[in-house]
Amino acid sequence: MGKLYICGTPIGNLEDISLRALRILKEADCIAAEDTRRTLKLLNFYEIKTPLTSYHEHNNREKGPDLIRQLKQGRNIALVTDAGMPCISDPGVDLVKLCFDESIPVEAVPGPSALITALALSGMDSRRFAFEGFLPRENKKRRQILSELADETRTIILYEAPHHLQETLSDLNAALGDRKTALARELTKSHEEIIRAGLGELAAAYCDKEPVGEFVVIIDAKEPDIMETPVMTVREHVDFYMKNGLNEMEAIKRAAKDRGIGKREVYKELKTKPADTASLR
Predict the structure, then answer these.
(1) How far apart are CA 128 and CA 49, in angstroms?
(2) Which of 75, 165, 206, 274 could hold 70 in an S-S bridge, CB 3.0 to 4.6 Å?
(3) How far is CA 147 from CA 104, 131, 171, 174, in A?
């Protein structure tokens, strides 16, 4: 039985690849690539001669079983995407599922990821985030996802192609309101750019500006709406904010502000016995 290797490849700068990934790409019997032309540039840069075969969203149903047959025959296959980690908004996940169904071993060779790189550069809260990938193009599904994102209390991360960026920014602004946003463009390349502004400002800017390059969109989380929560104890008030992603000190500060009291007073009340908290309404 062969093995499938999920190999992370550079998202821009060709030097952003691990020594292990280079070794696996050299030693594999073949490399299954989303776009063989793009992967060939990487292989030529490192003088790797391993044969290439295509595997992408338009041929994965037919090609998947063929790759499984080769793996069963003992061939080792390296799976790569155009950029970053396979299986993230990528049809590689279907091949991994087939391998699990057939008890074929799968090994990850970690590498760069556009969503993590963009989040790190954005300055947004990175402790809790929701990755949506590409928004659906079909209107009904798109409206449903946008409606769900409107109430998302975690940082939101999306991918978008340049020719759909203006429409997506406008739709997000209409559904989510004018939230703080960071656009990450051409990550790790010479023209890398991080643009920080409100969704409304960005949507307006790209009405007259032609987007260039692939984009990662990072949107600030919705503030938890304390007004939707019934009258509560101090402990319940702090717990409410902690369940929505804040740490204890941040939750104490927010609860103190809501109640119009000092944070020391809130902290003191939290240390009282549970039997004493009934009066703290």
Answers:
(1) 41
(2) 75
(3) 39, 15, 11, 10
Of 61-65, 101-105, 187-191, 254-258, where does mean pLDDT reach its minimum?
A: 254-258
Are the C-beta atoms of 48 and 33 separated by less than 8 Å? no
Please check whether residues 74 and 124 belong to one and the same domain.
no
Q: Where are the beta strands (DSSP E) in the chain?
A: 4-7, 30-33, 52-54, 77-80, 106-109, 129-134, 155-160, 180-185, 193-198, 215-219
pTM confidence score:
0.77
> Domain containing 210: what range?
115-219
- Convert the pLDDT of each residue in 175-224 to its tens digit: 999 999 999 999 999 999 999 999 999 999 998 888 988 999 999 998 76
Number of domains in the chain: 3
**CB under 8 Å to 3, separation ≥6 — which residues?**
71, 76, 77, 104, 105, 106, 107
DSSP letter (8 states) at residue 97? H
Specify whether 214 is located in the same domain as 248. no
Question: Side-chain half-sphere of 28: how many Cα atoms within 13 Å?
Answer: 31
